[in-house]
Amino acid sequence: MKIAILSVSEKGKILSSKLKSLLSKDPTVIWIDAFHKNVKENIDNIFIDNVNNPVKYDAIIGIMATGILVRSIAKNIKNKKIDPAVLAIDDNGNFTISLLSGHLGRANDLTLKIAKLIDSQPVITTATDINNKIGIDSLSNKYYWDIINKNEILSFNKAILDEKTIKIFLNINKPHNINYKKDMLDFFKNNESNTLEIIDLKNKEMSIKSVDEKYILFKNNKNKDFNLNIINYNGIDFKKSDFDIFACFDKKYIFFKQRKLIVGIGARANIENEKVLNGIKIAMNNLNLPIERIDGIATAEIKSDEKGILETAKKLKIPLNIVSLDEIRDLNNPIISHSDFVREKFDIPGVAEPSSLIVAKKDSNSSKLIHRKMAIDGVTVAVAVSK
């Protein structure tokens, strides 16, 4: 997450500096800038979306009165699909308020994280959260799924609040192998969302009987068959290959595409596979994700024969992707960190971050870091997802 912190008073500036220092220690926070005074001008610049602004912020934290912050961002906000997370914190740090984009922008999660860091009271007002339920957009955010038809979010979240049964179908397509069902069930249980059910097509709970250009015919092993019209659901024109997961209730459907999640690995020579595996586990734990969510491991060609990396990929049954040094040299991303040692020896900025970004970007428009480089026991680990 890339974060901008704004303050207006001297007291707020002190809190801003403290918060920046605390968040900088979090490897899931990729970039932080702090701005003082000139709120409207700074916010306008933050919202500028052009090629000259390589750092597009995912979250804006205003240490100021909510009225000042709301009026300052008003002309720049568009809709929940694209707006950044916006949080407000009072000068004394008593309250951390999730103001905008609580689910899709991850403002609620960031609010809880910051409240814990500065010992403040988190303020979250979204209906699903205050009733300890999982919003359908919270589910997609947690596991890095893109929602194809975001216009259905409201109806699904209302159904969840009304405790209607939502069926979630996994493993529609190969090779996307969604095998973290247990983690999902634990997530549902911990959030009192017992009306969310998982139907795993891979495990034959329900099977695809036939497919044509307009329909998938699902064969339920307990009940009768049913058709899903995928060619024109509420004006969306797509095919079965365009989604990996869908959920439904009362003839309403919401479709998801799983984003590619890649773990980049660098390591010293002759690294033990236990240390590589431990580094991966720590990074995924930082992201609150199961190991099974990983779609691939990436490393540079200089590590293509590294036994510890090869053994780890084999043990986890996760594809290993080798990235050439030229691909890394051609990567133009101001966010990635640089290693003087690696630069001097191989003329590249690093291995873990660029490798993860390059592989995550393949077959998609772009990619982003969600866990910056972390070094532990001779291993460097970074995580990126497709966008």
Automatic annotation (TrEMBL):
Matches recorded under InterPro entries: CbiG_hydrolase (IPR052553), CbiG_N (IPR021744), CobE/GbiG_C (IPR002750), CobE/GbiG_C_sf (IPR036518), GbiG_N_sf (IPR038029)
Any one Gene Ontology BP term: cobalamin biosynthetic process
Domain CobE/GbiG C-terminal: 261-384
Protein name, UniProt field: Cobalt-precorrin-5A hydrolase
Keyword Lipoprotein attributed: no
EC number of the protein: 3.7.1.12
Keyword Hydrolase assigned: yes
Organism lineage string: unclassified sequences, metagenomes, ecological metagenomes
Chain ranges of the Cobalamin synthesis G N-terminal domain: 56-129
Keyword field: Hydrolase
Species this protein is from: bioreactor metagenome
Encoding gene, per UniProt annotation: cbiG_3
GO molecular function, one term: cobalt-precorrin-5A acetaldehyde-lyase activity
Pfam families (alphabetical): CbiG_C (PF01890), CbiG_N (PF11760)
Coiled-coil boundaries: none
